[in-house]
Write a structure and sequence with these properties.
The chain is mostly helical. It contains nine helices and five strands. α1 packs across α3 and α5 packs across α6. The chain is rod-shaped, with a radius of gyration of 51 Å.
């Protein structure tokens, strides 16, 4: 409710008032004109429940004949033993100045205003709680969707990892001995010479593939065999054309992937391969072959 003060007079700018439905159960409801008149006064009243107007002014504002206004004003000013309130002997209104015949105070206006404010306060908090619950439901729904999305992503990653058996980039890969590594491929039907060729590539890169990602030996050689088996068998494979001793130079180039081996790694690979080939020769040829550095084999 907004009040404007001009020339010492209060002007009510309120255009509506809250009416409690219990007015229909009160004694003034027996006369519709009195009830309507009282409701008009509630709308015209200021924040303190004062209607500082003459009967003629009320008639003009409400478009009700002056005689009718005067009739219901007189009824509302009269004591009412049937009123719920005993204040002012049950009168609904009383004059604000005994020295003039106009201007009224609604007796129980402050009481009903407090009831209205309390109800409005309760409604305000009910609405706020309803909005808060709605926000929480929306937030929980978003969190649930995010959690479900993470679960799906994690499951996809696990599924992909289980299908490729590719370790994470930061995980170290165990590099087996060359002869042991070649022996592991026998069960998969992989040509042992091809396995040795691939082993040199793989071990020379510390167990990583051409992209620099760690790969487990058996999975890596199997993948290479599936991809390169046809060219290996028909003799067009680059590794078969150029032989498998590609570490004789300290600046060896991986012909399959175009990668330069580190000189130190190349030397280690070369030394390991020569030692393993020397150890494998007796079993392959059925003849005892001396190792390098052990003389000429004469006994």
């Amino acid at each position: 409710m907004i009040l404007k003060v001009k020339d010492g007079q209060r002007h009510n700018t309120n255009v509506f008032a809250k009416i409690f439905d219990q007015i229909f159960d009160s004694s003034i409801a027996e006369d519709p004109s009195v009830r309507h008149g009282f409701m008009d006064l509630l709308i015209l009243a200021d924040a303190e429940g004062v209607v500082d107007m003459t009967a003629e002014a009320i008639a003009r504002r409400t478009n009700v004949p002056v005689a009718s206004v005067c009739t219901y004003l007189k009824a509302l000013e009269s004591p009412d033993p049937r009123s719920r309130s005993k204040r002012a002997d049950g009168c609904r209104i009383k004059k604000i100045d005994s020295h003039r015949d106009w201007g009224w105070q609604i007796v129980n206006y402050s009481h009903y205003r407090e009831l209205k404010d309390e109800e409005a306060r309760k409604k305000y908090f009910r609405d706020k709680q309803r909005e808060s619950r709605a926000r929480k439901r929306s937030s929980n729904a978003v969190k649930d969707n995010q959690t479900e999305s993470k679960k799906i992503t994690h499951a996809e990653e696990e599924e992909e990892g289980s299908s490729t058996h590719t370790p994470r980039a930061r995980e170290a890969v165990e590099i087996p001995d060359r002869s042991a590594a070649v022996a592991q491929t026998a069960a998969a039907g992989i040509d042992p010479t091809f396995a040795g060729h691939v082993y040199d590539d793989w071990s020379g890169r510390d167990g990583k593939d051409a992209a620099g990602q760690p790969r487990r030996w058996l999975q890596y050689v199997t993948t290479r065999w599936q991809r390169e088996r046809a060219s290996w068998k028909d003799g067009t494979h680059k590794g078969k054309q150029h032989g498998t001793n590609r570490t004789d130079s300290l600046k060896t180039t991986d012909r399959n992937f175009g990668l330069k081996l580190d000189p130190g790694k190349a030397a280690r690979v070369m030394a390991r391969k020569r030692a393993e080939q020397a150890a494998e020769a007796p079993a392959r040829d059925g003849v005892a072959t001396p190792l390098a550095g052990h003389g000429d084999g004469a006994s």
